[in-house]
Amino acid sequence: MVRLQFPTEAVPQVPLEEVLTPLPDLDSSVVPEATETDASPPPVNAGRPVFRLAQSRAGPYAFLGTAIGGVAGGAAALLGQGQFFWLPLVLGFVTGWSIGKKAQFEICSDPGCGTLLVPEVAVCPNCGGTVAGSIRHADDRLAAEEDLENRGRKP
Fold this sequence. Notes:
- The chain is α+β, with helices and mostly antiparallel strands.
- It has a domain at 49-153.
- It has 4 helices and 3 strands, in the order αβααββα.
- Helix 2 packs antiparallel against helix 3.
- The longest helix is centred in the middle third of the chain and has 21 residues, at 58-78.
- The chain starts with 15 loop residues before the first helix and ends with a helix.
């Protein structure tokens, strides 16, 4: 077996000022002033229509319900009621799915955005698109834009 031995003499203490070198003072005349070209670009959808896309939490809630049902089914199996293992699983899935379908929220329909939209918002805070309505499925976005454009052209 190897034993490590460390020196027993004290480590000399060196003042911090001797170890670190101070940074030179920054000359403010070298730093360029901010110009208008440095401003951030406008949002990608500024002035374009976007839609509220309804979403639900059915999938995650169904998964959670099934997990809870699995624990309950496992407890039933440990207590000698293994034939009822599947019942809590099914009940947990159905309960989670139905509760999750009611827990709805809306997001921006732009494929590159997907920001959560609160009910009183008229412009998407992320992409800058004007909220022009609601759609049920993401695939309906282009048809809704076309319909909006056609309604705008007709007298």
